[in-house]
Amino acid sequence: MDKKTEEFYERLKVELDNSNTWPAEYLFKFIVPTDEAKIEAVKEAFNCLGAVIKTTQSKTAKFTSLSVDVQMKSAQEIVDKYIEVSTIEGIVSL
């Protein structure tokens, strides 16, 4: 991970800690190319966490958005999830 990315995640962690009391509900939003393997990879990352996952396909069906509503224990856990899913090719975290 490059220095700029590390700084981004560190800022995100500080902001999350300042605005939440843990544990807290958190809404992750992602866009991935419409590919069942990529969609399943995102779902698998949140498996066993009790997440509510909603998917919506774009009008052209080229992309799928995923909204993941889940109870998280800490800001670090959120940052770790973003880092975990960042390995999925073509994913955009919102």
UniProtKB/TrEMBL annotation:
Top-level taxon: Bacteria
InterPro entries reported in the protein's UniProt record: UPF0250_YbeD-like (IPR007454), YbeD-like_sf (IPR027471)
Pfam families per the UniProt record, alphabetical: DUF493
Protein name: DUF493 domain-containing protein
Annotated organism of origin: Flavobacterium arsenatis
Origin organism lineage: Bacteria, Pseudomonadati, Bacteroidota, Flavobacteriia, Flavobacteriales
